[in-house]
Specification:
Number of domains: 1
Largest sheet: 7 strands, mixed
Strand order of the largest sheet: 5-4-3-6-7-8-9
Oligomer: single chain
Keywords: Cytoplasm, Methyltransferase, S-adenosyl-L-methionine, Transferase
Enzyme class: transferase
EC number: 2.1.1.77
Distance between the termini: 31 Å
Pfam family, one: PCMT
Organism: Candidatus Muproteobacteria bacterium RBG_16_65_34
Order of helices and strands: HHEEHEHEHEEHEEE
CATH class: Alpha Beta
Strand content: 25-35%
Number of helices: 6
Number of strands: 9
CATH architecture: 3-Layer(aba) Sandwich
Bound molecules: S-adenosyl-L-homocysteine
Structural class: alpha/beta
Length: 220
């Protein structure tokens, strides 16, 4: 990252950040690479200034347009699951939102492709990541349920909005040997699934009960 991670915050916030890492450890996040990436990415720069004092609480926060920046524990859990079979080279993220999860991923994998359907969020996330010097991320304004065919196959796919069923293009664009982490289910509660693609087909594992905003399908 180009800018220092202490930018705009004092020592108190650095301590709050350390407490968040400690809390994630206590909640079972064990992958040191993931914890280090979360320590490095300044979450307060991904939310409105009025909410910045709450940036290092383990909670989702509003980012406008009815959307939320994910809870740090969920970001950590999903990232850990994505890296669990060894670091992927190329990752597709559906639901850029604030760009926070994108920035965490950009610390950990060589190539990140991220798709968002709400234009102001897409623009703001792109600006933030540029300012932070994350050069290995490509952004697209689109309905991410169609994936990003030009850059497929992906070693990993992460979806941060919930569909009722896994969109078929995302399954098709997952490389053999790759994995996907995706919340699936109805409006208020979903199951976080880890899907692996093998030579024979797809396997599913349930990770957590989660609460994401819905994946909105259709024209942008
Ligand atoms: N990881 C993000 C989560 C944002 S909330 C963060 O921590 O900030 C989920 C995001 O998914 C929202 O920004 C929403 O606009 C987006 N989204 C919903 N349906 C989508 C779709 N079909 N394609 C792309 N993005 C979508």
């Amino acid at each position: 990252m180009r800018k220092t991670d202490t930018q705009g915050i004092g020592m108190t916030s650095l301590r709050t950040r350390e407490r968040l890492i400690q809390r994630l450890r206590e909640e079972g996040i064990a992958d040191e690479r993931v914890l280090e990436a979360i320590r490095k990415v300044p979450r307060h720069l991904f939310i409105d200034e009025a909410l910045a004092s709450r940036a290092y609480e383990d909670t989702a926060l509003p980012i406008g347009y009815g959307q939320t920046i994910s809870q740090p524990f969920i970001v950590a859990k999903m990232t850990e699951a994505l890296l669990s079979d060894g670091p992927p080279h190329k990752v597709l993220e559906v639901g850029t939102g604030s760009g926070y999860q994108t920035a965490v991923l950009s610390q950990l994998v060589p190539e990140v492709y991220t798709v968002e359907r709400i234009e102001p969020l897409f623009k703001l996330a792109r600006k933030r990541l540029r300012e932070l010097g994350c050069r290995n991320v490509r952004f697209k304004l689109s309905d991410g349920s169609w994936g990003w065919a030009e850059h497929a196959p992906f070693d990993a796919v992460i979806v941060t909005a919930a569909p009722n069923e896994i969109p078929q293009p995302l399954l098709e664009q997952l490389a053999v040997g790759g994995r996907m982490v995706i919340p699936v289910g109805g409006a208020s509660m979903q199951e976080l699934l880890q899907v692996r693609r093998t030579e024979q087909g797809y396997t599913h594992e349930r990770l957590e009960l989660v609460n994401f905003v819905p994946l909105v399908v259709g024209r942008v």
